[in-house]
Design a protein that fits this description.
Elements (H helix, E strand, L loop, with lengths): L2 H11 L3 H18 L1 H13 L5 H23 L2 H5 L2 E5 L1 H9 L3 E5 L6 H8 L5 E5 L8 H8 L4 E5 L2 H12 L3 E4 L10 E6 L2 E6 L1 H6 L4 E10 L6 E7 L9 H15 L23
Parallel strand pairs: 1-9, 2-5, 2-8, 3-4, 3-5
Antiparallel strand pairs: 6-7, 8-9
Helix pairs in contact: 1-4, 2-4
């Protein structure tokens, strides 16, 4: 990759987490002020989800910037230092119980909190295969792969070859993780309600979640105040409701998770877009 950006990101990665989060708050407000599209998406998504409180909006703006500011530290610091930022864990007993039963693990980590740290922390305990999509900025991909794919983490592309690797990992009774709220490509999803609006949603996660040899868990890393680190939160995948299809069940699970900490969800992400080639959004 280009040398200067890597040097700059390396310098940023060395800053204390509290400083990164303060800088990130400024960055979040800068993005909100500069980009009308981002500002429109964030406000509309919050409103449709029932979060009209300005305090939630202000916190969401700050956390979006903090997510960007902390990423160099997640990628460039030694993995042990990154994992050391986790000071609280809620739900690890569910992981241990699944492993004791000889089950594979499916971690669904949405765009919420510090999703970069979740896989890095989990990989210290068990091998982890993670699906990823290449960033739009090509020069960033080698750094991203280097930062995410280390220790026990194996990165695989979100294509046919990567999905094949996912099934192989599950067969070995390992762990798999990916972002369930990332808008999939043509033929990889279907429309299902998400906070009251149709959202094109990946079908792979629901298919994997219903396998008998898999335990599906929802997970995110919550930012603690004043740069004190992160709390890993692990929740069970909910039971289905009569008449509910599997994709809607996934989105309902994500809604319940987001409601625990709405200010740390990435509301500016265009979750409701129609991918090229996908069937039209239902009326």
């Amino acid at each position: 990759m280009h040398r200067f950006p890597r040097i700059l990101l390396g310098l940023i990665a060395g800053l204390p987490l509290s400083v990164l989060h303060r800088l990130g708050t400024v960055l979040g407000w800068a993005m909100y002020g500069i980009s009308p599209t981002y500002r429109r998406n964030l406000r509309a998504n919050l409103a449709h989800a029932g979060y009209g409180d300005p305090r939630v909006r202000r916190a969401a703006i700050a956390h979006a910037g903090q997510m960007l500011a902390e990423t160099p530290a997640m990628w460039l610091r030694p993995q042990e230092r990154v994992a050391g930022l986790v000071s609280e864990i809620d739900g690890m007993a569910r992981v241990d119980a699944a492993r004791a039963q000889g089950k594979a693990l499916l971690f669904l980590t949405p765009h919420m909190g510090c999703f970069e740290i979740a896989a890095q922390y989990a990989a210290r305990r068990l091998p982890m295969t993670v699906l990823y999509r290449a960033p739009k900025m090509g020069w960033l991909e080698p750094l991203m792969r280097e930062g995410r794919g280390r220790g026990g983490v194996r990165l695989v592309p979100a294509d046919f070859s990567g999905v094949r690797e996912v099934f192989a990992a599950l067969k070995r009774r390992e762990a798999v993780g990916f972002l369930p709220d990332q808008v999939p490509g043509e033929g990889e999803g279907e429309w299902a309600e998400f906070f009251g609006r149709p959202a094109y949603t990946a079908t792979l996660a629901p298919k994997l979640a219903r396998r008998d040899d898999v335990v599906c868990l929802l997970a995110y890393a919550k930012r603690l105040p004043r740069g004190a680190g992160y709390a890993i939160v692990i929740r069970p995948y909910p039971q289905g409701i009569a008449g509910e299809n599997e994709v809607r069940r996934l989105n309902r699970a994500l809604e319940e998770l987001v409601r625990e900490c709405p200010e740390q969800y990435l509301w500016g992400y265009n979750r409701y877009k129609t991918p090229r080639g996908a069937k039209p959004r239902p009326a």
